[in-house]
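Entry 14. Structure prediction run on the chain below.
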Amino acid sequence: TPRPIADLLVRASFRALDRDGASANARVLDAAAGAGVFLLTAFRELVAARWRADGVRPNTQVLRHILYHQITGFDINEAALR
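Output returned:
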């Protein structure tokens, strides 16, 4: 998926979650991760949402929590996973 399209879709989804106040705690699953375009955009949005929710810039521990607990991606193509 081209990055501008992935950015548009992910940002629109997060804006909808923002209305409910759920964006900082959202969990993202990309079942066809490929190059990870959606996951990278989602990570950026999750970091920004956490920053807005907490009022402070996320530290390394928070960033790791987002990576390990809020983002999941997989793909059946071994080359894409590399």
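The first strand starts at residue 28 and ends at 30.
Filed with the rest of this week's runs.
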